[in-house]
Amino acid sequence: MRKAVRVAVGSAKKLSRRFYGFRPRRLRAAKIVWPKALVLLGGCAQVDYVSDKHDRKLRQYFHEFEPGVLLLAGERPQPNGYNLLLIFGKFDITKDGLVG
Known about the structure:
By secondary structure, the protein is of the alpha+beta class. The protein contains one helix and seven strands, in the order αβββββββ. The radius of gyration is 15 Å and the shape is globular.
């Protein structure tokens, strides 16, 4: 189990560096209990977020998706009270953000 966590952290560091363009400032483990069922909320037309990627200046970004990208939710909140939302479809996480 510990080895799998280390592998996941290493992958997260690489993905973070590719997305932000610099080393991650902090890492935080998130314990996710995968639900036995998901509900389809609908098509995911776009994602908006605020980030300081690339130059460390906060900016709002939005990425529009082609039809076929879906937004799904877990059947109930996680043990920590947070909800689990999944974006499912054909897109990539790149230095330019979410592309697809």
